[in-house]
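Please, structure for the following, as tokens.
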Amino acid sequence: MTNNESEKLITVTNPATGEIAGTAKLCDADDTKAAIEKAYAAYLKWSAVSSNRRAAILFKTAELVRRNQDELARLLTTEQGKILPEAKNEVQGFAAVYEFYASITGTALTGDALPKSDYGYAFTRREPIGVCGAIIPWNMPVLIMAWKTAPAIAAGNPIVLKPSAKTPLTALAIAALAKEAGMPDGVLEIVTGRGETVGRALAESRELASLSFTGSVATGKEVEKLSCGTGKRLIMELGGSDPMVVCADADLDKAVAGAVSGRFYNCGQTCTAIKRLFVADEIAEEFTAKLKTETEKITVGNGIFKGIRMGPLNSREGLAGIESALERRGTGEVISGGDRLTEGAFGAGNFFKPTIVLNPDEKSPLLNEEIFGPILPVVSVDSLESAIEYANRTPFGLGASVWTKSLKNSYTFAENIDAGIVWVNRHLKIPPEVPFGGEKASGYGRENGLDALKHYTREKTVIISP
């Protein structure tokens, strides 16, 4: 990404080719304040719009997104780098989230009747909280845009969204479709710019009732600090280092397939990607051999082309970061991959081979930091209890999975692992109906499901005496 300051534009770079993918306005703090003011003007009307009408606009937006999914997916691949099937899946995910919140808008915002004969009659009602804000990252910009905007809008709140300066193009295209669907001006405001200007203005704003942030732990702490004293509600999703534990009784082929897709999807650049893999000693040799074979079948290249299974990292900084982590790994043995792809067309992009590291040192950054790239450390363990203890050592607590045929193993893992979401015999996929969020350094608050919708409302108690 570069910036043309004279024209106040962000220039977005295709991470596979180094070519210009498009441009967006380089907004500043004044633009952000103007967007918040516009959203507040819209709030007075949007909060009074019937739930049926809000649902209809959400449904129509989803319909238009599905109708234009091929064009949107191509744009997403061009600016972000992920392969076209993954981009299309993400665009479809956006539509599914909007459809879910449209389907519950009319029923989920009702209050409770609280008969109290000695007082009269009491009930609660849920109301919109006001103008909301959201800051989203570059790795899953379309899906996370849906997670943050759909429940806020469904609940009757306008929202001001800051996409990453690396991937603003698809968000702008979807916002245009929302307007075509009947979304009133000001209800979905997109402000494109840098974190230190637009992001700071959102965090410091006293006019926002809520701010939902997805990003790194370091940036999240800065957002918290800037938001302190403003009175706004916060949702913080700060990444993770998800463990996958494979028990001795697991279906090995299924577990291997899960590890490959769970780690190398989106070139390993997903918050809930499998970033640490723990395998029972009894099956470690067989499992690792199968994993190596399947990993080496992955075709790396420009995600726009058919047959490619993994695209580039999104940026040169990201590429340098995983190279550094690999160099600092300690004693781990690289048994597959381990370096850049630089020959021919690869030279202009940010390509790195899918990599497996066997039994790195327990203090290795591969096991203690969030590694945002296609490196998978594999560690042998002597028991499920040891795996859980090992997995819980990091400060993160986002997601985790266990692969087993035993209900007892499943229960033991779910009860003792530090994670906001636990999968059994799968990893990564999250339907819009279930709440999602982390524990420990991975953040707080929940997105998706009913919890997210309730976050964007305030409960009011009414007591009526005869």
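The two ends are 65 Å apart (CA to CA). The longest strand covers residues 120-128.
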